[in-house]
Design goal:
about 425 residues, alpha/beta, Rossmann fold, 2 domains, seven-stranded parallel beta sheet, 15 helices, about 15% strand
């Protein structure tokens, strides 16, 4: 008998937001695993994120999608509330309650970083007796700024209010949560450290994934980011937590240029670096380029582009960059699509980070530079210089992808989700 799962994903297609892709990727395969999904999302016009209509082509047409309303962001910001989780909460609660009351569901699955919505799981369990599973794509409570010490967190009083509400709601919600799925083992370890009662046996790690279908659709799309000169492309956020590693990388690039008799025409292009888009001040790549004398070799476009557009650009790039973070638990959702694009890639990461652990089985397919070591000297420097020399001469020859890449395909991840769902309802 097919079981039914209500997937709560406020940021869902056609919205192009990172936390909406996890649920979207596994949808085509869940029914093969005996689970019929229904999506509970927020109306796209109420969401402050770009829309990418082509994402709807990746979803089976007969999947039921229920859209909830949300407070208008312009009006809510007058009261200091812009977060979608708070803006949609009353309508999400009403639509979810209606579905759970009027139809048969075996499980509720929250796949979102809108943490204000997660306490609905415990509320619905008390009212309807239905277990719930939470997917932590980001840590609910992020200790990054507290661990750094002197670095003040952004947002002022809003950050402090969010931290207080998180402390209260996280423990209350997880007390009755049947299972926690996380993209990083460190999220589970941190949770166990904060909550002594938390049982890690009721948690599983399922990293982000990729879809061959996405790659095929993107390959048929026109690329919006194409460079004639040899270019290393990076698509995604570049925050303060990435500054140290990016400075190391660009400084090594500057030294490489200085050792060549004629300055080679190799550029770096950073796209979609800020959620504020063109209204943002000069971003980290631009500031570092000016600091290192590389203004002629670094191009930054803070405007975000669509998920499939990003894949299309990566498939046509000369080389792709994967950038690490000072947050050791950082696990970017764009990692696997980047590796699946089939183009040369390089990365700068801390050796003891989650990202380094994920990339270790794939190191033969790209250039891995350890940010915690001195890759400005010796063999790592030579490998980096050789990569740049080859790129400047006309292009780096792509290396075969690791067979381990298949382990992160969407069908495998859907089966892992289904196994967890089955254990929850059977227990």
């Amino acid at each position: 008998m097919t079981k039914r799962v209500l997937i709560v994903a406020p940021h869902f297609a056609p919205v192009n937001a990172p936390d909406g892709h996890r649920a979207r990727l596994i949808l085509p395969w869940l029914r093969e695993c005996g689970w019929q999904p229904t999506i509970l999302a927020v109306r796209p016009e109420r969401i402050l994120a770009p829309l990418e209509p082509a994402l709807m082509d990746t979803i089976p047409t007969d999947i039921e999608i229920v859209r909830a309303n949300a407070f208008d962001s312009v009006r809510s910001r007058r009261f200091g509330v812009g977060n979608l989780g708070w803006r949609c909460l009353p309508w999400l609660a009403r639509e979810g309650s209606h579905l759970l009351r009027s139809e048969r569901f075996d499980l509720v699955y929250f796949s979102t970083t809108q943490f204000a919505c997660l306490p609905l799981g415990r509320s619905w369990r008390r009212r309807f007796g239905i277990p719930y599973v939470i997917d932590l794509q980001d840590p609910w409570h992020n200790p990054y700024y507290r661990q750094r010490g002197g670095s003040p967190p952004p947002g002022g009083w809003k950050y402090r209010f969010a931290a207080m509400s998180t402390s209260l709601s996280e423990g209350w919600t997880l007390r009755r949560c049947s299972h926690v799925i996380a993209v990083s083992r460190r999220y589970i370890d941190d949770l166990k450290h904060r909550r002594s009662w938390f049982d890690p046996s009721l948690a599983s790690v399922i990293p982000f994934g990729w879809s061959e279908n996405d790659q095929k659709i993107a390959a048929a799309m026109p690329a919006t980011v194409i460079d004639a000169a040899p270019t290393i492309l990076y698509i995604g956020r570049v925050g303060a937590d990435m500054t140290r590693l990016l400075r190391k990388l660009l400084a090594a690039f500057a030294e490489w240029r200085a050792t060549r008799p004629v300055s080679p025409r190799v550029t770096w292009r950073f796209v979609g670096t800020s959620y504020a888009g063109r209204t943002a001040a000069a971003g980290v790549p631009t500031r570092l380029a000016q600091e290192l004398g590389l203004a002629d070799a670094v191009v930054e476009d803070p405007d975000r582009i669509g998920y499939l557009q990003a894949i299309a650009a990566q498939q046509r790039s000369h080389a792709n960059l994967i950038l690490g973070s000072d947050d050791a638990s950082y696990s970017p959702s764009k990692l696997w699509p980047t590796l699946a694009s089939g183009r040369p890639w390089l990365t700068c990461i801390d050796d003891q980070s989650t990202l380094a652990e994920l990339l270790r089985p794939h190191s033969s397919a790209g250039l891995v530079l350890g940010g915690s070591g001195a890759f400005l000297a010796g063999e790592p420097r030579d490998r980096f210089y050789n990569f740049l020399d080859e790129l400047a001469r006309g292009g780096v020859t792509p290396r075969p992808a690791s067979p381990a890449l298949r382990d992160f395909h969407a069908d495998r991840l859907a089966h892992e989700h289904a196994e967890i769902f089955n254990r929850v309802v059977n227990s």
